[in-house]
Amino acid sequence: MPLLKETLPETAKAYKQMTDTVLSTDNFLDLKTKELIAVVAAVLVRCQACVDLYLPKAYEAGCTREEIAEALAVAACISAGSQVEWTKI
Predict the structure, then answer these.
(1) Considering Cα of 79, then 84, then 88, then 89, what sign does the dihedral take?
(2) Among 72, 81, 66, 15, which residue's Cα sits nearest to residue 46?
(3) Which residue has the higher pLDDT, 89 or 80?
(4) Residue 88 confidence (pLDDT) above 80
(5) Domain range list for the chain
(6) pLDDT tens, residue by residue, 8-57
(7) CATH among 1.20.1290.10, 3.30.420.40, 1.20.140.10, 1.10.10.60 for 2-85
(8) 38 CB neighbour count, 10 Å cutoff
(9) Do 15 and 4 contact (CB within 8 A), yes or no?
(10) Residue 1 CB-half CA count within 13 A
(11) If DSSP codes are grouped into helix, strand and coil, which group holds residue 62?
(12) CA distance 20 to 57
């Protein structure tokens, strides 16, 4: 993100504002659910920095290891299924 902040500061600011708004505002999903989704999404896109950021936040929001493990298992099923079913081979 340093490059984005340096070269496109308004874009970096907009990204941070979006992230802060989505993850801090309870609308239809509570914070715990959002942090759980963030951890799973971080794993699926293979972003270690994101996992390092969102995993502690998930625990702080009340997620248990078991809930995180189950959410990852669900994501693994969807990910595996997408690889098996993505083509007509």
Answers:
(1) positive
(2) 72
(3) 80
(4) no
(5) 2-85
(6) 999 999 999 999 999 887 889 999 999 999 999 999 999 999 999 999 99
(7) 1.20.1290.10
(8) 21
(9) yes
(10) 10
(11) coil
(12) 13
Helical packing angle, 65-85 and 31-44, nearest 10°: 50
Q: Which amino acid is at 10?
A: E
Tens-digit pLDDT profile for residues 3-13: 999 999 999 99
- Burial level of 34, CB count in 10 A (0-12/13-18/19+)? buried
The answer to whether the CB of 60 falls within 8 A of the CB of 68 is: no
